[in-house]
Write a structure and sequence with these properties.
This protein is of the alpha/beta class. The protein contains 16 helices and 8 strands. It has 2 domains: 155 residues, no CATH class; 139 residues, Trna Endonuclease, Chain: A, domain 1 (3-Layer(aba) Sandwich).
């Protein structure tokens, strides 16, 4: 190879590396700029909401125009700034201030700080509080640069404070997009995680989000697989569900929850010449253990539980490293008998789980009634309401 050709290739490599570094710088700057814009928009909407609330609560002298206040504001603002100031948008801003009264109360009396802008300012200024929030320790209800105005609008649809705090924490911790957040709310993630948690566990879930420290913390019942667009049909076979899950793996990982890393499908294990194929294998990086998942299109049988028990024992003895925690077995089934599950698994009920799956979004009324019954059974008679 000639020296000229070598020099040309080296030059091309150097240019390629330079381009990559420039792309990284630009993407980072663009991401930071987007976060800054989002944070500024969130603050502006909160401050506008505050102005509306204070105008509406200004006493009898203002009661006369309060009834048409939002319509009047909308007409004027949309003429001046274009779309974005509809009556509905202004209602959201007002609700935002009312539901997040301490959004900007992070270190000092931020209200005083905002209003101490220059004498020429016509109103409170929007400032960047993201660094302050990071320094002092963020809490739900406070401003966070990781949440856009679309996130907050989605969160405002949640009436229960403990549920809203949970989704707020998890959206930030897991970097959920606004669409992913909406999906988790629509599938009642918070309510599904309440299963098998006492009152202290429910409180921790609302205050801290999901911090799995035991296998049960990583399990839901039911699992909602609406993203597969499959019918509720007895004609389905396991392989079709498995293929659909693999093709929508990112969505399935979102439903499973944070910490799951995909290992493979139909990973063969051999016992004295006989081969067995668990449907899906994951590793949970937070619990530090393997997770073996089997899919069943029919109602769960004791044979299904026995098969999963074999898989779990095999992974514990042959695959898991010495510092790994015990393997989790999860059977996703169309239906189950909980009493049969308890009797078959006996002392393995904290390692092997059977959960239902469904292909449609759950009914809020039905799901909450079911979870309420299960929580009442868990807490026992005499528990405080």
């Amino acid at each position: 190879m000639s020296r000229k050709k070598v020099t040309a290739e080296a030059s091309a490599t150097a240019i390629g590396e330079l381009l990559q570094r420039i792309r990284q710088i630009w993407e980072s700057a663009r991401s930071q700029a987007a976060r800054s814009v989002n944070s500024a928009l969130v603050q502006a909407n909160w401050l506008i909401g505050r102005q509306i609330v204070e105008a509406e609560q200004g006493g009898k002298s203002r009661a006369a125009y309060s009834s048409r206040l939002l319509e009047t504001l909308s007409e004027s603002l949309e003429k001046e700034y274009g779309s974005g100031f509809s009556v509905t948008a202004l209602k959201y801003m007002r609700m935002f201030y009312l539901d997040y009264p301490e959004l900007l109360e992070i270190r000092h009396a931020v209200r005083d700080e905002l209003e101490s802008a220059s004498a020429e300012a016509k109103g409170p200024a929007v400032r960047d509080f993201s660094a302050t929030a990071a320094e002092t320790g963020w809490q739900p209800g406070r401003l966070h640069a990781g949440l856009s105005w679309t996130h907050y609008r989605t969160l405002l649809k949640i009436e229960r404070r403990e549920a809203r705090d949970f989704y707020e924490i998890e959206a930030i911790r897991n970097g959920w997009s606004a669409r992913q957040l909406e999906r988790q709310i629509n599938t009642f993630l918070f309510d599904r995680l309440l299963k098998s948690r006492d009152k202290a566990g429910v409180l921790a879930l609302a205050n801290e989000g999901l911090l799995p420290v035991r296998p049960l913390d990583a399990i839901k019942d039911p699992y909602v697989l609406e993203f597969l667009d499959l019918p509720e049909s007895h004609r389905l076979v396991e392989s079709r569900i498995e293929e659909a899950l693999i093709s929508r793996l990112q969505d399935f990982l979102l439903e499973l929850g944070s910490g799951f890393a995909f290992i493979g499908r139909q990973v063969r294990l051999t016992l004295d010449g006989d081969h067995f194929y668990p449907d899906l294998v994951f590793y949970h990086v937070k619990l530090k253990c393997y997770v073996v998942i089997d899919l069943k299109v029919d109602r769960l049988t004791h044979g299904d539980l026995g098969q999963m028990l074999m898989y779990v024992n095999y992974y514990d003895r042959e695959i898991a490293a010495p510092d790994d925690q015990p393997t989790i077995g999860l059977i996703l089934c169309a239906g189950k008998n909980d009493a049969m599950v308890r009797y078959v698994l006996a002392d393995k009920t904290e390692q092997i789980f059977a959960s239902r799956y469904q292909f449609q979004l759950p009914s809020e009324e039905v799901l909450r009634a079911k979870l309420r019954r299960e929580l009442d059974e868990l807490q026992g008679p005499g528990a405080d309401s």
